[in-house]
Amino acid sequence: MKSVEEQLSQYKSVHFNKNNIKTHFVGIPLIILALTLLLSLYSFDVNLLSIKINLTPAIIFFSGVLIYYFVLHWRLALGMVFYIIPNLYIASLMAPMPNSYLLAIIIFVVGWIIQFIGHYFEKAKPAFVDDLSQFLIGPFFLMAEVYFYIGLEKKLNEDITPLAIKRRRQLEENKR
Predict the structure, then answer these.
(1) Residue 49 maps to a domain
(2) Percent of the chain with pLDDT over 90
(3) Is residue 176 part of a domain?
(4) What's the rounded mean pLDDT across residues 56-63?
(5) Count of domains observed in the chain
């Protein structure tokens, strides 16, 4: 498994343009909300030690994603917990609404349009084109950017930025 530095520097290598990053702060949350809603449309009950628990595919999926994030970097993962739990709650409120699946699809498409607009500014292809694991790193990268902005995880930022610059140069040389 790649380290957090490798994952974040790979993602950052195609996310230097400020306009691109701004679009990602809109597009990625929209995509996550849409996926959370789609995965919350169905639920089922599980009895655990005589306690009835209502689960959705969204809860199961994001529990697995959070485990992955905690393996990568527990402090960033903690921030993701505080992001994902409200998403799950909002999706649980939206799921019973009429045509919520259609709303989720619209939100999903709008989110991706915003993402691709950002990559127009960046003049670089999205990170997932070369590595599908980058789909999971996008939200994690945004959380890292928030941490960096408020002055947390300075060492991590200092570690990934030179790696990202080096990777970007290699990508641009390979284009020629």
Answers:
(1) yes
(2) 77
(3) no
(4) 97
(5) 1
The residue segments making up the domain with residue 41 are 4-171
pLDDT at 12: 93
Phi-psi region of 17 (alpha: psi -120 to 50; beta: other; left: phi over 0): beta
Q: What is the pLDDT of residue 48?
A: 83
pLDDT band for 100, please (50, 70, 90 cuts): very high
Residue 37 confidence (pLDDT) above 80: yes
pTM of the full predicted structure?
A: 0.91
Check if the beta carbon of residue 54 is closer than 8 Å to that of residue 44: yes
